[in-house]
Amino acid sequence: MTESATTGITVRDASKGALFVLFLVTMIDMIGFGIVIPFLTYLVEDLTPEGQTANIGLWVGLLMTSYSAAQFLFSPFWGSVSDRIGRRPVLMVGLVGNTVFFTMFGLANTLVIAFVARFMAGVFNGNIAVARAYIGDVSTPQQLATRMGIIGAAFGLGFTFGPFIGGELSDPAARWGWFVGTLFETHPYLLPCLVASVLSVFSLVIAYRSLPESLPIESRTQKESVPWLTNMANIMKSSVSMLRAPSVSLVIWVSMLFTFGFTIMHAVFILYTEMSPENGGLAFSEADNGRVFAMIGITGILTQGLFIGPLTRKFGSRNLIPMASILTGIGLVLIPYTEAESSWFHILIVSVIIALGNGIFQPSSSSFLTRVAKSNGYELGVVMGAQESLGAFARILGPLTGGLVWTLTATREWPLDYHTAFHICGLMMLLAALLSLRLPLVDEGSDAATGIGEES
């Protein structure tokens, strides 16, 4: 037990083992999100009935959206349950769900089964808020920022390793002879899903042995749980109220537009790269796509680890937001103009541009929103909760929009052809950049020592 010097609140300190388990839980959540990206389009093509190929883009968007939608819908439920029964059992139930539904997705033989498996995986991965609550239970205010960084690091690593695993282990029978004639030949995307399931089992065992309960019995809520509809209505009400709040609303709108444009790319990137060069694509395999997304993830980690501090001190968070939006937009628009003859050279450059822009935008927007909220006297938890909820809407609508636009335009003539979805990505980034020019001037000088730089 430790006591905060500033608040006098006694908290249970966490062991290194417990923090490691939380890191694993969060990383596996992001692996579960990213592992399907390299092969999802190919799986949809395999499962699409003859004569319905025009709907492939829409199904890709639906399958990507289902995961984020389930997370958004069920995060309040898991948070409420953890307040009543404790964090540990909820986190362990999530790992069990991962194991079951990752495997189910790999074994899916119809699009409906794949959709159900993906949605249910999102349901059981709606416990990231519980992991954050656990850290809040066991951390003093002085420890909180550093320990919340564990969640951010796990997000970055999970999004890097997830697509890489998904790409490298897809269709193993076509690459390694010992898989020929096995279940992995008839279900070519089962192996990466099984790897994700094994990782969940591994984390479950460690959680059982090394993750103590963080919420004492006396601290658990004894009141009746809030009905789901009431909870969602409260979330919507809080989000709408923040969208009406001066200053704060501008930052949230900028973040929403950026997230919306970025997640459109998630749905259409591989629809483009897997096309034949004759049709304008690159004929990439699942492994090729996994390596591209891993490259984006690694560049993003390096950006946030090495560059964001010096850049923020030089330019300030406010000025970095429009710069990052424009940089990301340029990269997204350039994707479909890659030449097949030098595809890897072009994709490398484009990926680095996108990753740099995203890696600068995310911490800059979060830091600036925190500063604006504090300077205007808003409750930080309410503001951040509203940003996360509205960001979740953008992550839900983005892939669905991308899939729908692709379905309607991919086979048409330029300019409304396969370039269109990427042009929309760029347009969203441009709108985010223009809107960010209206952000309020806030003194960021006091954050210089912590890596949140001074306004230039």
According to CATH, the homologous superfamily of the largest domain is: MFS general substrate transporter like domains
Q: Could you tell me the mean pLDDT?
A: 84
Number of domains: 2
Taken as a percent bin, the fraction of beta residues is under 5%
CATH architecture assignment of the largest domain? Up-down Bundle
**DSSP E strands, number:** 2
Name of the CATH first level of the largest domain: Mainly Alpha
Kindly provide the radius of gyration, computed on alpha-carbon positions and rounded to a whole number of angstroms: 22 Å
Question: Which fold name corresponds to the CATH topology of the largest domain?
Answer: Growth Hormone, Chain: A
Give the strand line-up of the largest sheet: 1-2
Overall shape: globular
Output the structural class: mainly alpha
Q: Helix count?
A: 16
The N- to C-terminal Cα distance equals 43 Å
Write the layout of secondary structure elements.
Elements (H helix, E strand, L loop, with lengths): L1 E2 L6 E2 L4 H19 L5 H8 L8 H30 L1 H21 L3 H14 L3 H10 L3 H28 L14 H4 L3 H21 L17 H16 L4 H26 L12 H30 L1 H18 L8 H33 L4 H30 L10 H17 L20
Antiparallel strand pairs: 1-2
